[in-house]
Amino acid sequence: MKPILSDDLTQAATAPPTDALPGALPLTDLDHALIAAANDTLARHYRTFWHTVAAAIRSKDGRIWTGIHIGTTVGRLAVCAEAVAFGRAVLEGDGTIETAVAVRHPKPEEVDRELAVVSPCGACREMIMDHAPVAGIILMAPTGLVKLPIRTLLPVPYRR
Ligand SMILES: [Zn+2]
Fold first, then answer.
1. Residues in the chain with pLDDT < 70?
2. What residues does 56 pair with on adjacent strands?
3. What's residue 10's pLDDT?
4. Do 108 and 50 contact (CB within 8 A), yes or no?
5. Could you tell me where the beta strands, DSSP code E, fall in the chain?
6. From the CA of 34, how far away is ligand 1's center (Å)?
7. What spacing in Å lies between the alpha carbon of 7 and ligand 1's midpoint?
8. Ligand 1 mean position to 41 CA, how many Å?
9. pTM over 0.90
10. Which CATH architecture is the domain 23-153 placed in?
11. Cα–chain-centroid distance for residue 34?
12. Domain range annotation of the chain
């Protein structure tokens, strides 16, 4: 067996991202509409620090549920936009997640002022995996926007 040299590790860490992500799907018109719903929510409700990320979930019945991030002074108590959107899907809809997306607002000091698709944080990956293990997640890959199965983003979820 070939020994692992520190040069090998350095090379791996600095290797350019691969062009294609396994399992990545191109976006449909419905997916673009989902991103638009998240962008619209963020544009209407953005508040520096308090509401900086919005999410949109499309349930299996086709309905869209939006949510907004809730910032808190005690940082770890903040609630992600995906959780707020999913709560609405449970309370007002069929409680399913077919596809989800989150978008972030630029920070005040950032030059680029565009809203941008962001991948879900680790906690949201766990939440989505718990409730919708076949959901698709829209995110920005090196090649552009793609949709990936949640299982791809969290191959080994937490189990207790
Ligand atoms: Zn999150």
1. 1-19
2. 66, 101
3. 53
4. no
5. 53-58, 64-68, 99-104, 116-118, 136-141, 144-149
6. 18
7. 35
8. 17
9. no
10. 3-Layer(aba) Sandwich (3.40)
11. 12
12. 23-153
Of 20, 46, 152, 31, the closest CA to residue 104 belongs to 46
Tell how far the Cα of 74 is from the centroid of ligand 1, in angstroms: 16
DSSP character at residue 1 = -
Q: Which of 122, 110, 116 is nearest to 54 (CA)?
A: 116
φ, ψ of residue 104 in degrees (nearest 5): -115, 150
Number of residues assigned to the chain = 160
Question: Tokens 């090998």, residue?
Answer: 8
Identify whether 82 is a catalytic site residue: yes
pLDDT in the model for residue 8:
55
| Site of tokens 């976006």 | 27
- pLDDT (0 to 100) of residue 22: 84
Helices 81-92, 122-131: axis angle to 10 degrees equals 20
- For 10, 106, 111, 127, the CA distances from 32, given in Å and listed in that order, are 38, 20, 25, 23
Residue 137 forms beta bridges with which residues?
A: 100, 148
Catalytic residue among 82, 92, 109, 126, which?
82
Kindly state the tokens that stand for 23. Answer: 């399992």
